[in-house]
Amino acid sequence: MNITAAISRREFLQATAVSAGLAALGQTAFAAPPARIGFGFSLYGMRSLKVAEALKACADIGYSGVELACLKDWPCDAAALTKADRVAIRSQLNDLALDLPCLMENLGLVVPAAQHQTNLERLKAACELAHGLAPDEPPLIETVLGGKPAEWEQLRDKMVVALKDWERVALAHKTVIAIKAHISGALHTPRDAQWLVRQINSPWIRLVFDYSHFQRQQLNLADSLSAMIGETVFVHIKDNITTTDGKTEFALPGDARDIDYAEYLIRLKAGGYRGSVVVEVSAQVFNKPGYDPLAAAKRSYTNIHPAFIKAGLRAEA
Prior knowledge:
about 325 residues; alpha/beta; TIM Barrel; two-stranded antiparallel ribbon; 10 strands; about 45% helix
């Protein structure tokens, strides 16, 4: 399959769907820009599968792209992938017409000097992998930053200093690094995420938006997205559920049925977002006994695909 032709057909269908949606709302269809919000699945939730098997499964289910998990000792760890591995992954992505919007890393930002240098080397390796797998449009690299919520005031200025080192790597390799606020991390709120990237003020340091971490803090979607949309280049989705013993934990997107994903997508589109929306299966889900990565990918797609259609981002099958 020709990758350029496949993408063109996909974008045509998306643009047609957007025009139809606007017409239904009584708006001028020809004024709509082509929609380019992809719907992907993160291989963070498929560690047990061979990469080739995971990629084929995602394409067969209907996802338009994937995020590769490049964490240490994972199947796509840049330190472990051979040249032949990289060629095979690149070829399969092209053959399956799968977009590659992102590589996932997991690097602490405020760490001892030796670890900081190790992290910089891992970032460099991830950048090289990004350009090797998709030289015409390298995926961004996303990571959480570590620390604890109570440490934000203590760590934030140190984070700015360390992040400037990351920015130099990103600039040298022309690869965007997107940082993610996390409910358990020092960086955990939308406003603080906005503040941090604005201290760096670089197009190479941007944000990941994952509402599940803000929903857990009782923050609403509109306000959270408003604070971050200007710097957001990547979106993860998943839900929160309350267990029978009263604990809150992450779940597959759509399972909790308390997020209007069509509204979510419409807000992203209206805010000018044109990246990918990618299902992230939390470790709280995939570490449970009996977890099936293929079933999780299929269920997430079934839950969320109708919202893409309703939002005018995908045509009816």
